[in-house]
Request: fold
Amino acid sequence: MSTIEVGVRSPAQTVEAFFDAYRRHEIDEMVDLCTPNADFSYVPVEIWGRQRVVRGDGKVATIGKTLWTGLITSFPDLWNTVAAVRPSVDGSRVVAEVTIGGTQASAWANISARGGSFAEPHLFVFRTTDGPIDGVTAYWNNASISRQLGHLEID
Reply:
């Protein structure tokens, strides 16, 4: 799908198409629904390594694509259910309430696979132009996901 085809959709329809692609695990299609330089921020993502901390901030085509690929690899049955999609009056933002879940098959970040599953509400804020998505920001309760997967971190 090209960004030209995206232009015939409303911003809300573009966001719905994004989640349809996510549900089908079509990461390239998700990225194609965004501008080439679309911003990406998964606010709760903070993965501590031995010598660095990886955060969920950057561009859709790089950080977003990498995180989505890792999630789908670790949770091969990853699913989403869209509860609401609401565009702003001027169409520059679309807010989506989405529950995302799946069963863990391999390690994700610092959470080893125990075969557990999760289902967690997420709030997405999409920045939109006259067609493609120009920014994706998401919020959720990371501690809840960790608990559901049996990962209890103690400092």
The CA atoms of residues 35 and 116 lie 35 Å apart. The first strand starts at residue 34 and ends at 48. The chain has a mean pLDDT of 89.
